[in-house]
Amino acid sequence: MDFSAPLAPAAPAPAADAPPADVVARLQEELPGRVDVSVAALEAARADRSGHRSPAAPRAVVRARTVEDVQAACRIAHGTRTPLVTRGAGTGLAGGAVAGAGEIVLDMTAMDRILEVSPADRVAVVEPGILNGALNAALAEHGLWWAPDPASKDISTVGGNIAMNAGGLLCAKYGVTREAVLGLDVVLADGTLLRLGHRTVKGVTGYDLVALMIGSEGTLGVIVGATLALRPAVRGVPVTLGGFFPDVVAGAAAAEAITGAGHVPALMELMDEATLAAVRAHAGPE
Fold first, then answer.
1. For tag attachment on the chain, is the N or C end more exposed, with fewer CB atoms within 10 Å?
2. Handedness of CA 57, 113, 199, 122 (dihedral sign)
3. Residue 247 C-alpha from the chain's centroid
4. Which of 153, 142, 146, 159 is nearest to 70 (CA)?
5. What is the reported pTM?
6. What DSSP designation does 13 have?
Protein backbone atom coordinates (compact mmCIF):
# COMPACT_ATOMS: atom_id res chain seq x y z
CA MET A 1 0.00 0.00 0.00
CA ASP A 2 1.35 3.43 -0.93
CA PHE A 3 1.21 5.97 1.90
CA SER A 4 3.28 8.65 0.17
CA ALA A 5 0.36 10.71 -1.17
CA PRO A 6 -0.66 13.87 0.68
CA LEU A 7 -3.26 13.27 3.39
CA ALA A 8 -4.17 16.89 3.92
CA PRO A 9 -3.29 19.52 1.32
CA ALA A 10 -2.09 22.78 2.73
CA ALA A 11 -4.55 25.60 3.16
CA PRO A 12 -3.86 28.76 1.16
CA ALA A 13 -0.78 30.49 2.52
CA PRO A 14 -0.70 34.13 3.61
CA ALA A 15 0.68 36.57 1.08
CA ALA A 16 4.40 36.02 0.60
CA ASP A 17 5.08 39.73 0.92
CA ALA A 18 3.47 39.97 4.37
CA PRO A 19 5.52 42.20 6.67
CA PRO A 20 7.49 40.14 9.24
CA ALA A 21 6.07 42.28 12.07
CA ASP A 22 2.70 40.62 11.46
CA VAL A 23 3.97 37.07 11.98
CA VAL A 24 3.40 36.90 15.74
CA ALA A 25 -0.04 38.47 15.40
CA ARG A 26 -0.99 35.90 12.75
CA LEU A 27 0.25 33.06 14.90
CA GLN A 28 -1.69 34.33 17.91
CA GLU A 29 -4.83 34.77 15.84
CA GLU A 30 -4.74 31.30 14.30
CA LEU A 31 -3.23 29.48 17.31
CA PRO A 32 -4.75 31.10 20.41
CA GLY A 33 -3.11 29.89 23.62
CA ARG A 34 -0.28 28.21 21.75
CA VAL A 35 2.08 31.16 21.18
CA ASP A 36 4.58 32.01 23.92
CA VAL A 37 6.52 35.27 23.65
CA SER A 38 7.69 35.42 27.27
CA VAL A 39 11.31 36.32 27.89
CA ALA A 40 11.92 32.98 29.64
CA ALA A 41 10.61 30.95 26.70
CA LEU A 42 12.53 32.92 24.10
CA GLU A 43 15.77 32.78 26.09
CA ALA A 44 15.46 29.01 26.60
CA ALA A 45 15.10 28.50 22.85
CA ARG A 46 18.42 30.20 22.15
CA ALA A 47 20.45 27.18 23.33
CA ASP A 48 20.48 23.40 23.63
CA ARG A 49 22.86 20.86 25.13
CA SER A 50 25.39 21.44 22.38
CA GLY A 51 26.66 24.48 24.28
CA HIS A 52 25.84 26.75 21.35
CA ARG A 53 23.79 29.88 21.99
CA SER A 54 22.38 32.18 19.34
CA PRO A 55 23.29 35.89 19.45
CA ALA A 56 19.65 36.96 19.80
CA ALA A 57 16.31 35.54 20.85
CA PRO A 58 13.72 34.17 18.38
CA ARG A 59 10.44 35.89 17.60
CA ALA A 60 8.02 33.43 19.25
CA VAL A 61 7.63 29.87 20.53
CA VAL A 62 4.64 27.91 19.23
CA ARG A 63 3.73 25.06 21.59
CA ALA A 64 1.99 22.64 19.24
CA ARG A 65 -0.57 20.20 20.63
CA THR A 66 -2.02 18.80 17.41
CA VAL A 67 -1.04 18.10 13.82
CA GLU A 68 -3.26 21.02 12.81
CA ASP A 69 -1.22 23.33 15.04
CA VAL A 70 1.95 22.27 13.24
CA GLN A 71 0.34 22.75 9.85
CA ALA A 72 -0.82 26.25 10.77
CA ALA A 73 2.60 27.30 12.08
CA CYS A 74 4.36 25.95 8.99
CA ARG A 75 1.87 27.59 6.66
CA ILE A 76 2.30 31.00 8.30
CA ALA A 77 6.09 30.70 8.40
CA HIS A 78 6.19 29.61 4.77
CA GLY A 79 3.83 32.32 3.61
CA THR A 80 5.76 35.09 5.36
CA ARG A 81 9.22 33.65 4.60
CA THR A 82 9.96 33.41 8.32
CA PRO A 83 12.56 30.79 9.37
CA LEU A 84 11.11 28.03 11.55
CA VAL A 85 13.10 25.84 13.96
CA THR A 86 11.58 22.60 15.25
CA ARG A 87 12.45 21.79 18.85
CA GLY A 88 11.92 18.77 21.07
CA ALA A 89 13.58 18.42 24.47
CA GLY A 90 16.66 20.39 23.39
CA THR A 91 19.03 17.56 24.34
CA GLY A 92 20.85 17.43 21.00
CA LEU A 93 24.58 18.07 20.78
CA ALA A 94 24.65 19.45 17.21
CA GLY A 95 22.87 22.77 17.73
CA GLY A 96 19.87 21.70 15.65
CA ALA A 97 17.31 23.16 18.09
CA VAL A 98 19.03 26.53 18.59
CA ALA A 99 16.85 29.42 17.38
CA GLY A 100 17.93 32.96 16.60
CA ALA A 101 16.68 36.42 15.74
CA GLY A 102 13.48 36.63 13.70
CA GLU A 103 12.77 32.91 13.83
CA ILE A 104 9.74 30.92 14.99
CA VAL A 105 10.33 27.99 17.34
CA LEU A 106 7.96 25.05 16.93
CA ASP A 107 7.96 23.24 20.27
CA MET A 108 6.74 19.62 19.90
CA THR A 109 7.01 18.43 23.51
CA ALA A 110 3.25 18.61 24.22
CA MET A 111 2.55 16.09 21.43
CA ASP A 112 3.58 13.15 23.60
CA ARG A 113 0.89 10.50 23.29
CA ILE A 114 1.23 6.80 22.55
CA LEU A 115 -1.50 6.29 19.96
CA GLU A 116 -1.21 2.51 19.59
CA VAL A 117 0.78 -0.46 20.81
CA SER A 118 0.32 -3.72 18.90
CA PRO A 119 2.17 -6.62 20.58
CA ALA A 120 1.07 -8.95 17.78
CA ASP A 121 2.64 -6.72 15.11
CA ARG A 122 5.45 -5.48 17.40
CA VAL A 123 4.56 -1.94 16.39
CA ALA A 124 3.91 1.28 18.29
CA VAL A 125 2.45 4.48 16.85
CA VAL A 126 3.47 7.58 18.79
CA GLU A 127 3.55 11.34 18.69
CA PRO A 128 7.01 12.92 18.43
CA GLY A 129 7.18 14.55 21.86
CA ILE A 130 7.16 11.38 23.93
CA LEU A 131 10.41 10.69 25.77
CA ASN A 132 12.35 7.53 24.94
CA GLY A 133 12.37 6.53 28.59
CA ALA A 134 8.62 7.04 28.99
CA LEU A 135 7.92 5.04 25.84
CA ASN A 136 9.99 2.08 26.95
CA ALA A 137 8.45 2.17 30.42
CA ALA A 138 5.02 1.82 28.79
CA LEU A 139 6.21 -0.86 26.36
CA ALA A 140 7.67 -2.93 29.21
CA GLU A 141 4.10 -3.78 30.28
CA HIS A 142 3.73 -5.58 26.94
CA GLY A 143 7.13 -7.30 27.11
CA LEU A 144 8.47 -5.03 24.35
CA TRP A 145 10.99 -2.24 23.90
CA TRP A 146 12.20 0.27 21.31
CA ALA A 147 15.88 -0.36 20.70
CA PRO A 148 17.45 3.07 19.95
CA ASP A 149 19.60 3.86 22.97
CA PRO A 150 21.08 7.38 22.94
CA ALA A 151 22.82 8.44 26.13
CA SER A 152 20.03 10.99 26.62
CA LYS A 153 17.23 8.39 26.31
CA ASP A 154 15.58 9.30 29.62
CA ILE A 155 15.20 12.96 28.63
CA SER A 156 15.22 13.03 24.80
CA THR A 157 12.15 12.79 22.58
CA VAL A 158 11.44 10.12 19.99
CA GLY A 159 10.86 12.79 17.34
CA GLY A 160 14.20 14.38 18.10
CA ASN A 161 15.96 11.02 17.94
CA ILE A 162 14.39 10.37 14.54
CA ALA A 163 15.24 13.83 13.23
CA MET A 164 18.88 13.37 14.26
CA ASN A 165 19.08 9.60 13.54
CA ALA A 166 20.40 9.08 17.07
CA GLY A 167 22.73 6.19 17.80
CA GLY A 168 23.83 5.00 21.23
CA LEU A 169 25.90 2.29 22.86
CA LEU A 170 23.60 -0.49 21.63
CA CYS A 171 23.73 0.47 17.95
CA ALA A 172 26.43 -2.11 17.17
CA LYS A 173 23.86 -4.85 17.83
CA TYR A 174 20.51 -3.21 17.16
CA GLY A 175 21.38 -0.43 14.72
CA VAL A 176 20.72 3.29 14.91
CA THR A 177 17.28 4.92 14.94
CA ARG A 178 16.81 4.42 11.18
CA GLU A 179 16.56 0.65 11.67
CA ALA A 180 13.69 0.98 14.15
CA VAL A 181 11.29 3.25 12.23
CA LEU A 182 8.72 1.88 9.77
CA GLY A 183 6.68 4.96 8.94
CA LEU A 184 6.42 8.69 9.53
CA ASP A 185 3.77 11.38 9.38
CA VAL A 186 5.46 14.58 8.22
CA VAL A 187 4.27 18.16 7.73
CA LEU A 188 6.05 19.94 4.88
CA ALA A 189 7.03 23.61 4.88
CA ASP A 190 3.76 24.71 3.25
CA GLY A 191 1.63 22.78 5.75
CA THR A 192 0.96 19.71 3.61
CA LEU A 193 0.68 16.49 5.64
CA LEU A 194 2.30 13.33 4.24
CA ARG A 195 2.19 9.77 5.50
CA LEU A 196 5.34 7.90 4.52
CA GLY A 197 6.35 4.27 4.87
CA HIS A 198 4.32 1.38 6.24
CA ARG A 199 3.69 -0.68 9.37
CA THR A 200 5.18 -3.94 8.14
CA VAL A 201 8.81 -5.07 8.03
CA LYS A 202 8.44 -6.06 4.39
CA GLY A 203 7.59 -2.80 2.66
CA VAL A 204 9.93 -2.56 -0.27
CA THR A 205 8.10 -0.74 -3.06
CA GLY A 206 8.60 2.88 -4.00
CA TYR A 207 11.10 5.48 -2.85
CA ASP A 208 12.33 5.13 0.73
CA LEU A 209 11.22 8.59 1.84
CA VAL A 210 11.22 7.54 5.48
CA ALA A 211 14.98 7.03 5.35
CA LEU A 212 15.31 10.41 3.65
CA MET A 213 13.50 12.13 6.52
CA ILE A 214 15.39 10.33 9.28
CA GLY A 215 18.47 12.36 10.14
CA SER A 216 17.37 15.38 8.08
CA GLU A 217 17.30 17.53 11.25
CA GLY A 218 14.02 19.24 10.39
CA THR A 219 15.24 20.60 7.06
CA LEU A 220 12.74 18.59 4.97
CA GLY A 221 9.68 18.54 7.18
CA VAL A 222 8.34 18.32 10.73
CA ILE A 223 7.75 14.83 12.15
CA VAL A 224 4.29 14.69 13.74
CA GLY A 225 3.87 10.92 14.09
CA ALA A 226 5.97 7.77 13.92
CA THR A 227 5.32 4.06 13.45
CA LEU A 228 8.05 2.23 15.33
CA ALA A 229 9.39 -1.31 15.01
CA LEU A 230 9.60 -2.94 18.43
CA ARG A 231 11.58 -5.86 19.83
CA PRO A 232 10.80 -8.39 22.56
CA ALA A 233 12.15 -7.25 25.90
CA VAL A 234 15.58 -8.66 26.72
CA ARG A 235 15.30 -11.38 29.36
CA GLY A 236 17.82 -12.43 31.95
CA VAL A 237 20.56 -10.55 33.78
CA PRO A 238 23.11 -8.70 31.63
CA VAL A 239 26.66 -9.97 32.02
CA THR A 240 29.57 -7.54 31.81
CA LEU A 241 33.11 -8.66 31.02
CA GLY A 242 36.22 -6.51 31.23
CA GLY A 243 39.57 -6.99 29.56
CA PHE A 244 42.86 -5.14 29.90
CA PHE A 245 45.33 -4.73 27.04
CA PRO A 246 48.79 -3.18 26.73
CA ASP A 247 47.66 -0.64 24.14
CA VAL A 248 44.68 0.52 22.03
CA VAL A 249 45.75 -1.55 19.02
CA ALA A 250 45.60 -4.76 21.05
CA GLY A 251 42.19 -3.81 22.44
CA ALA A 252 40.83 -3.14 18.96
CA ALA A 253 42.20 -6.49 17.77
CA ALA A 254 40.34 -8.23 20.61
CA ALA A 255 37.07 -6.52 19.61
CA GLU A 256 37.62 -7.64 16.02
CA ALA A 257 38.24 -11.20 17.18
CA ILE A 258 34.98 -11.25 19.17
CA THR A 259 32.81 -10.15 16.26
CA GLY A 260 34.82 -12.27 13.84
CA ALA A 261 33.98 -15.34 15.92
CA GLY A 262 30.28 -14.68 15.37
CA HIS A 263 29.48 -13.16 18.76
CA VAL A 264 27.25 -10.07 18.83
CA PRO A 265 27.52 -8.39 22.24
CA ALA A 266 24.96 -5.72 23.06
CA LEU A 267 27.78 -3.21 23.31
CA MET A 268 31.54 -2.96 23.43
CA GLU A 269 33.33 0.06 24.80
CA LEU A 270 37.04 0.72 24.24
CA MET A 271 38.51 3.03 26.87
CA ASP A 272 42.05 4.34 26.73
CA GLU A 273 44.29 5.11 29.72
CA ALA A 274 43.27 8.78 29.96
CA THR A 275 39.56 7.88 29.93
CA LEU A 276 40.00 5.23 32.62
CA ALA A 277 41.88 7.72 34.79
CA ALA A 278 39.04 10.23 34.42
CA VAL A 279 36.45 7.58 35.36
CA ARG A 280 38.43 6.53 38.43
CA ALA A 281 38.80 10.16 39.50
CA HIS A 282 35.04 10.68 39.22
CA ALA A 283 33.67 7.36 40.50
CA GLY A 284 36.49 5.83 42.52
CA PRO A 285 38.60 2.74 41.87
CA GLU A 286 35.60 0.34 41.92
1. C
2. positive
3. 37
4. 159
5. 0.84
6. P
